[in-house]
Amino acid sequence: MSDMAVEIEPRRLTVAEYRRMGEVGILAEDERVELLDGTIVLMSPIGRPHRARHAYLVEYLIGALGRRATVAGQYSLALADFDETEPDILVLPSALDLNLRDPEPHEVYAVIELAGSSLRHDTGFKRSLYARFAIAEYLVVDLNGGVLLRYTQPADGEFRSLERLGRGDHMRLLAVPDVELDVDRFLPPPSIAPC
Amino acid sequence: MSDMAIEIEPRKITVAEYLRMAEVGILGEDEQIELLDGAIVRMSPIGRTHWGVHWRIVDYLTRLLNDRAMVVGQSSIALGDQNHPQPDVIVLPRTPDAFMDRDPEPSEIYAVIEVANSSLRKDTGIKRDMYGRFQIPDYVVVDLNSRSLLCYRATARGEYGPPERLGSGAMFRLAAFPDVELDVDRFLPPPNVPLAEKDR
C-alpha cells in the first residue's frame, strides 16, 4: 500500500457527487465521513472526553455569544469542489439563514475542532485546508495537551498567526470582539484523564 | 498531500456501491476507472500501440484456444467485495450460463493479461498483489517498453512469486492449457514498429 500514492491516480469525487452518494443511500446518514481532496475519509472515532467537551463547549458558546453568532455543532462545510469537512463546531453569522443555503468559507467566523488522537491531522492537513480557503479563525482544542491552538490571519494558503492559549487565558473571536471568552471552558477539566 | 496518507483512513467503496454510483450517474459510463482495494482510481492513458497489441492478443488467443475458452477484451470483473478492475484481456471458461446473470468467480478465471506502458508499476505492484490474492492462475504483464512479458503464476500461498521474464522468441504455456504453446512474439508489437508516444 505504501507505493500506492505514486502508482495510482485516484478518481476524485466532487462535493456534488459526494452529496449525491448520501442522497441515494450509498453513504448512510450516520456515517462519520468527510470529503478531503476528493477522497471520502473516515473520521476518527470520538471518545467520551471529546463528546463531553463538545456538548459543554457548544452550550458555553451559545450562551456567551448569544445572538451575535450562530453556533452549529457537526455541520458540514463545503469548501470548494473537492472538500467538504464536518467541523466539530462552526461559528457563523446569525444573519445567515441556514434554511436557505450553506455558509461560504469566507462567511465563517470560526471553525473549531476538538482533537484527541486526530491532533496531527487537525493541525496538519486540516490546518492547510482551512488556511487555503481563508477561514478567518481556526481553533483546535488539544484535549490531551490541555491547550487551545488559535490560528488566524490566513494568507497565501497559510495562517500567519498561531497562539497557544492555556488555562486562565481569555480570548475574543475576531468576528465577535465585544465578547470575552474564557479559555478554560474550551479545555477538559484538569482532573479528567486524557483520551 | 504527502502527510495525508499516514493520517487519513479512506472510506473504502464496495463493488456494490461502485456499481450503484455508475447506475445513478455519479460515475459516467465512459469514465476510464477501476475499483482497486476499495478506491476508485483512474486508468492510465493508453496509446495506439497499446490498442494494437491488445487486439493482436485477443485475436491470437481467440483463434488458438478456439472453443476451449472465451477471450474477453476491456471488460470489468468483480473480484471480491472491493475490487472491480478492467483488465485488458481476461481468459474465461465457456460455461453453460455464459455469465449472463453473474460475474465469473475468481476461481473460474484462467488468466488475466495487462498491457503495460507507463502503468507498469501499477500492473506489477498493486494489481499483481490483487490478482495474486485472488489466485488467478496466470497473470501476464506485457511490458511494452522492454518488449517482454512478465509471467506471474499462482502458488498455494495466495501471492505470486517473482515473475518469469520472457523475451522475443520464447514460448510459454498457461496452466489451464498445458497442451497449447504460446508464442511470446504474438503478445508484442512487431519488432520494426516504434511505440506510440503515449505508450512509452
Short structural summary:
The complex is a heterodimer of chains A (195) and B (200). Chain A has helices spanning 4-7, 15-23, 48-65, 119-123, 125-132; strands spanning 9-10, 33-36, 39-42, 69-73, 77-78, 84-85, 89-93, 110-115, 137-142, 147-155, 158-165, 170-173, 176-182.
Description:
- The complex is a heterodimer of chains A (195) and B (200).
- Chain A has 195 residues and is of the alpha+beta class.
- Chain A has a single domain (45-186), classed as Alpha-Beta Complex (tt1808, chain A), CATH 3.90.1570.
- Chain A contains five helices and 13 strands.
- In chain A, the strands form four sheets. Chain A has a six-stranded mixed β-sheet. Chain A has a two-stranded antiparallel ribbon with strand order 2-3. A two-stranded antiparallel ribbon of chain A has the order 5-6.
- In chain A, a hairpin with a 4-residue loop joins strand 9 (137-142) and strand 10.
- Chain A is globular and about 50 Å long.
- Chain B starts with a helix and ends in a 17-residue tail after the last strand.
- Chain B has a single domain, classed as tt1808, chain A, CATH 3.90.1570.
- Classes of the chains: A alpha+beta (195), B alpha+beta (200).
